[in-house]
Amino acid sequence: MEFKKRVSRITAFVNRNVSRDILDPLKEVGVIDLHLAAARSPVIEEKKGIFALLPGRDLVDDPMDIISFLVDQKTGDHVLSLIIEKGQLNLPGRGSVYSEEINLVMAHELCQENKPAPFATEKTPSQKLTGICCIVQRGQGDSVARVVLDAGICVPSLNFGVGTGVRDKIGLLRITIPAEKEVINIATSPYDAEVIMEMMIEVGKLDQPGKGFIYLYPLKKGIINMKVTRGEQRHVASIEQIVAAIDHIKGGIEWRRRLGTVEKKGVKRRAYLTGLADLTLLCDEGTGTNLVSVAMSAGAAGATISRLKHVRPPDSPLSEVSPAREACSMIVSDNQVDGILKALKEAGAFTDSCHGQVQLRRVPKAFTYLVK
Amino acid sequence: MAQQAAGKIKVGFSHALSLLGHYIKNRVMTQVKSVWLIIIYLILFQTVILGIRITDASIIAIGIGLVVAGLTFFMEGLFLGLMPLGELVGVKLPQKSTLPVILGFALVLGFLATLAEPAIQVLQAAGRAVKPWEAPLLFLLLTKYSHILVYSVGAGVGIAIAFGMMRFHYNWPLKPFIYILVGVLVALTIWAFFNQNMHTITGLAWDCGAVTTGPVTVPLILALGIGICRMVGSAESGTMGFGVVTLASLFPILTVLLLGAFLLGSVPQPMNETDFFKKKNRKAAEALFNNKDKMVHYVFSNASFESQVAYFDGSKEKMVEYLEVLSKNESKRRAVFGDDPAALKRWAISQGTEEQRYSVFGSLEAVTRYSTSVKKAINIPDLLARNTIAAVKAIGLLALPIFLVLFILLREKLPRSDEILLGLFFTILGMGIFSIGIELGLNKLGNQVGNMLPSSFKTIQLLEEKTNIINFDPDLVESAISSDGKKQNFFYAKIGNDYVPIPYDEKSFDPATKQYQCTPTKGPLFGSEGSFWGIAVVLLFAFIMGYGATLAEPALNALGLTVEEITVGTFKKSLLMQAVAIGVGFGIAMGVAKIVWNIPLLWLLCPPYLLLLFITKLSTEEFVNIGWDSAGVTTGPITVPLVLAMGLAIGSQVGVVEGFGILATASVCPILSVLAVGLRINWKRKAALTEAVQTAKEESLVDGI
Question: Judged by CB atoms within 8 Å, which residues 22-51 of A form the interface with B?
């Protein structure tokens, strides 16, 4: 079935112990089609005693669940508030959640957005946010996450993915190029997003070939987990408490806008990519690789495939959809979208064999190594 | 975005070479990092602490190189071929077949996996030192009924995998299985403790459980479990696909103990040596051997002179007559001593008494001529053939049912078939090279160190260096005086290129044949005979050896990588490896203590397992699965030969009935260490979460919000 409609996509990054508190209320209000991904959230933990002498190695990982689903735009805000309320996400260290507007361009008839009945909730947060997604090679994620934690921006979420692209075209030699990737997701205020993107590019050396990819995407609103450290409090108040108090007084976050970093000597102006879109194809386990190669022949450069679990009530028609799913995220230019959609449809992505669903979000700014 | 050409890209030769070079270097370095500790440690211990030169050093060096190369191929092949294959089947199986079919597949797979892996043969090698009169049931299970032992272990593993699949299907937690199984096993072990015959096989039974699930079975079972769990598990299943290896390590113990109980009626009770060979016990004793001739062979190769005479109804003449017949009648000799024509003569020289030698050779001159010990050369074609066949058998027996199920039952095409087939080829190649390397390098090294190890607390006789010196002239003997005034006789012998003084013992000189039987001795190195410090050195050696060998185990590496992948990096592989390695180190030291001080195995197994049950109750499902699985995975192709060499050497020096049990203790302690680590991590996480909620509650009370 095809159509293009704007829906709300809500993504919650919560500690695994908290996710149970959220999933049940969601089911009760009528959100029955969810995707769950496993991730981890690193925080900085002060080392005590002799371990304090050892350099680094003070990142502690917590298991985290990424809960994502589509809702119609009317009830998006209400569901967001419900999640914040039930998960107590206004408290530091519990998790983050945000909503964004995306295009649901094409999907199997079973894979539509949730349409819960409207219900009453408390006030929704009004903080505007921008999301940053950075894809690097497996093992490099911690160093990029560190820079985000050290700057006190937010608690990043890291999950694993597999990259496809040039690698698949060189025959058996592809085993010499590692395909495992780490995907880092953070959200921050729109004022700071570009500065932080620059920091991540520098630390991850993304201007070198094969090191990775980074892009921004606009979000609507949400709440971010800012508790980047864990351990004993050294002062009367922790920095997060002070920031939260001043946010409350000032009624917003513009006051903590970062001034642009002083230009370092010899820093080149980066050539950012603009006018792109993130085309995410959700499909059944095992079908992603084929569909991605179909998309690549229609112009996509490659994709990052991550594994998801499909959560639905046990006796609903959604049980036809495979519980093991894949999300193939491709960054493409606007004019390629139609061609790719057509190719996917012809390959049967939206039939019962794949139960595909394509989401489209704007990517105003991206960066990677480009062949000169 | 830059447009890519659809279809293949041609990669230049030099570019391809650089890609390959980088890739190979990366993989080899990973394996070197896991193996260097145990190798360097063994070499240093032997040369520096025991002070013995390493014989065949160049062969050992080649062997070690082969181990690294083999491990590289093997691990790469696992992740390229075998595990993706297993996961594919695991994902497709619940979609396209019913539960009974899945269970049947699991039973067959478990059974074949046990037949494929060579671990049981290693235990049989350990059993060569067992005496049939001291431990009849154990001897029976290790020799005549060894194939039945393998089948019972196979049945145990098959049942375990079937239960594992059922567990995923019905989303049962692992904890109840552990409580019930461990409870039953501990109860059975306690009962067996009080039965003379069953007592001897408890060590074997627990070691069988520890030794199953080798480096090929474990990754396959893991991948299968993970695949099935993705399709079948609920949103919050803590199992994530682990837990089957645990069951595959506990069920075989049960089946072996039950087998022992079943055979209890058909074996004699333990008795002393000479009684065993008397005619009145003949029928009972023969039940332990394949046939009469094999028993005769055993009598001559392993029993003392008195027992040999007792076998022939106390008549020396009958025995001598029998030997003469053997040396002349070829078919009879073959039946008793096997196909090797020199076997009878070799036995006569090395173990026979004067009269026996005379009856075999027929004359004194013949004996005199045949005097030097035979040095075994390495038979390269045999080595290659044996190990290649073993590798093909190991992986073929497992890959075959997988392929059959995939193509016939599930009717699925193989995605990325070139990678998977390459991966399987790598696995077979890697396993073959790795086995050869272990035989040539690690086993030789381990045997040398292990055999010399008791010298740290005891005087040991270096029996392999026993030589018969011909044309010995008593005039060569000189005298020296010791500090307490006793006269010591010695003589100089040229061994190799060195002139070595050897203590002279009149009893070892045979004036009739003019031969001197020379057996050098060594030790004790630390303190006096049986001193505490000597034993402490042995225990410390055992700990570090267990630690180092565990870090090199391929199956544990595979588990660690899989755990890190499934938990998305929250449980790092290095943390798991370190926790398990330290646990295994303690366990092996504990097992060696059992042999040295003859502590009953019951005391070393039951308390830790009961403690484990308690800690399991406190831990989360996630850590319980990973912790118990990691114990089932340790004790693989690197640890087992080293541990057995050490255990046998110490056991034979100390004089225990059987040297089993070290592997079992080595499997208990890692569970404790991993669960302890898990408890601490979980406690800190919970504390961090509830801290926020607590402060919020307090704040709202204060602010009145």
Answer: 23, 36, 38-40
Q: Does residue A145 sit at the B interface (CB-CB below 8 Å)? A: no
Number of H helices, E strands in chain A: 7, 15
- Interface confidence, given as ipTM, is 0.88
Query: Helix, strand or coil for residue B34?
Result: helix
Question: Looking at chain A, which residue has its C-alpha nearest residue B620?
Answer: A17
Determine the Cα–Cα distance for residues A182 and A203; give it in Å rounded to an integer: 15
B235 contacts A176? CB cut-off 8 A? no
What is the length of chain A?
A: 372
**With contact defined as beta carbons under 8 Å apart, do B109 and B216 qualify?**
no
Tokens representing B329 are 């009648």
Name the residue with higher pLDDT: B31 or A262.
Answer: B31
Q: Is B618 on the interface with A (CB under 8 A)?
A: no
> How far is Cα B560 from Cα B573, in angstroms, rounded to an integer?
5
Q: Concatenated DSSP letters for B344-412? A: HHHHHHHH--HHHHHHHHSSHHHHHHS-SPPPPPP-HHHHHHHHHHHHHHHHHHHHHHHHHIIIIIS--
pLDDT at B300: 72
Rounded Cα–Cα distance for residues B248 and B407 (Å) = 27
Instruction: Look at residue A62 and give its three-state secondary structure.
Output: strand
- Quickly count: other Cβ atoms within 10 Å of residue A113's Cβ: 23
The answer to whether B130 and B658 are in contact (CB under 8 A) is yes
Which of B15-29, B272-286, B627-641 is predicted with the least confidence, judged by mean pLDDT? B272-286
Contact A322 B16 (CB under 8 A): no
How far does the CA of residue A297 sit from the closest CA of chain B (Å)?
5
For an interface test with B, the pick among A61, A322, A334 (most B C-beta atoms closer than 10 Å) comes out as A61
Tell me if A166 and B685 make a contact (CB, 8 A cut-off): no
Listing from the earlier edge strand, what are the strands of the sheet with B478-481? B478-481, B487-495, B498-503
Separation of alpha carbons B392 and B425, rounded Å: 9
B12: contact with A, CB 8 A cutoff: no
Determine the residue type at B558: A
- Closest CB to B688 among A93, A174, A297: A93
Going by pLDDT thresholds of 50, 70 and 90, the confidence category of residue B1 is: very low
Residue B648 and residue A39: Cα distance in Å, rounded? 48
Instruction: Tell me the β-bridge partners of B480.
Output: B488
- At A316, list the tokens: 């609903």
Q: How many Cβ atoms are within 10 Å of B591's Cβ, its own excluded?
A: 31
The conformation of residue A260, written as its DSSP 8-state character, comes to P
At B537, is the secondary structure helix, strand, or coil?
helix
d(CA B574, CA B34): 11
